[in-house]
Write a structure and sequence with these properties.
Strand content: 5-15%
CATH superfamily of the largest domain: NAD(P)-binding Rossmann-like Domain
Shape: globular
Number of domains: 2
Bound molecules: nicotinamide-adenine-dinucleotide
Order of helices and strands: HEEEEHEHEHHEHEHEEEHEHHHH
Largest sheet: 6 strands, mixed
CATH class of the largest domain: Alpha Beta
Number of helices: 12
Number of strands: 12
Radius of gyration: 20 Å
Structural class: alpha/beta
Length: 364
């Protein structure tokens, strides 16, 4: 059970300045002593629709860390949904605690009751530290949950569709840099061959790309090599390659790594790849590297669960994920015409759509 004393509360953080900084609409603190539930649900922006975002369970060191995470992640979901053309707002939840120790059926079901009380303003799903099994518990208390197993009418593991979206973003980037979107013969370095990375290896191998992989897990490396003929390398960042696909860690594009990149495209699944958006986005542009914004090209998983919300249909989810190709090209076009980096262009497109939808909905 989570001990409240384990949370070092900082008296220094000021709630409303944090919530107001990115204009969050609503932040709900959920507490239940008996089950040990301590959760925060943040709804950033619901202009486009109900806020959809996963529930992360993490052993945060302080309450301030948990609130910072939920605010940052929920804002990210607003942009991801908007750029993907979905009628969804941005939201996220965090449960404070160690998922391997503190998570119980009663805790997840109590959390589901809090989600239910929001009456559909927030739709939850699995995230780091939660599983489809947990979502089944949540589903016992609320219908406002997606990411259910296939056996329960859900879309199941979103990773294959996420990888497919990354593949679409990659092909659009190749089209921009080389004139044709064929990956044949292209040297592609995939960092992290976990759930998404391995599916990506499969997709690009089918197009006869030359695939290089790195991972800290030897088992996955062996699988990528034996199943798909990928070449295992130690230094994937410094590799001479056409496309670098980060599919492991965030903040991988930073002051140390960017000077070492020898590629013309970065297109991968990892979230928050740019360490500092305003510094590292322009740095990539200056080097002539086409960067496909992560929050667009890894949106296949969100598109998949969104499809679940409307009665899951895999063909629709795949078709909608294919739109990532054109949106990636639109972003490159906007970035070039405004001489801005691609992440800034993607942010602008996402913000524009929200502003326009707010405008039309203000009309009678
Ligand atoms: P995963 O945990 O299955 O795979 C990550 C892989 O990266 C693991 O195999 C891990 O061993 C490896 N790794 C960790 N540190 C590494 C390092 N220093 N060098 C090389 N490899 C390293 O996760 P996933 O579901 O495949 O997600 C990958 C990334 O994509 C994450 O950043 C995730 O947030 C993001 N993402 C995933 C989805 C999805 O549908 N799964 C959706 C959107 C975004």
């Amino acid at each position: 059970m989570l001990e409240s004393s384990a949370l070092a509360t900082s008296a220094e953080w000021d709630l409303f300045s944090k919530v107001g900084k990115y204009d969050h609409e609503q932040v709900l603190v959920c507490n239940d002593n008996k089950t040990g539930l301590k959760a925060i649900i943040a709804i950033h922006n619901s202009t486009l629709g109900p806020g959809l975002g996963g529930t992360r369970m993490w052993n945060y060191g302080t309450e301030a860390e948990a609130i910072r995470d939920v605010l940052r992640l929920s804002r990210g979901m607003t942009y991801k949904a908007s750029i993907s053309g979905l009628n969804l707002g941005g939201a996220k939840a965090v449960i404070i605690g160690d998922a391997s120790v503190d998570k119980t059926e009663s805790l997840m079901r109590r959390f589901g009751m809090f989600v239910n009380n929001l009456g559909g303003k927030y739709i939850t799903a699995e995230d780091v530290g939660t599983t489809t099994q947990d979502m089944e518990y949540v589903n016992m208390e609320t219908d406002y949950v997606v990411g259910l197993p296939v056996s329960r009418g859900g879309g199941g593991d979103p990773s294959p569709i996420t990888a497919y979206g990354v593949y679409m973003g990659m092909k659009a980037s190749v089209k921009k840099q080389y004139g044709s979107d064929s990956l044949e013969g292209k040297r592609i370095g995939i960092m992290g061959v976990g759930k998404v990375g391995m599916h990506l290896v499969e997709l690009v191998s089918k197009e006869n790309a030359k695939v290089f992989v790195s991972d800290i897990n030897k088992h996955y490396l062996n699988e990528a090599a034996s199943k798909y003929g990928a070449t295992v390398v130690d230094d994937i960042i410094g590799l001479d390659q056409d496309i670098f696909a980060p599919c492991a860690l965030g903040a991988i594009l930073n002051d140390d790594t960017i000077p070492n990149l020898k590629c013309s495209i970065v297109a991968g699944a990892a979230n928050n790849q740019l360490d500092k958006e305003d510094i590292h986005g322009p740095m990539l542009r200056k080097k002539g590297i086409a960067y496909a914004p992560d929050f667009l090209i890894n949106a296949g998983g969100l598109i998949n669960v969104y499809s679940e919300w409307n009665g899951y249909n895999r063909e629709n989810a795949i078709r909608d994920t294919e739109k990532i190709y054109q949106t990636t090209l639109d972003i490159y076009h906007k970035a070039d015409s405004m001489n801005i980096h691609t992440q800034a262009a993607a942010n602008a497109i996402a913000e524009e759509r929200i502003a326009l939808m707010a405008h039309i909905h203000s009309r009678i």
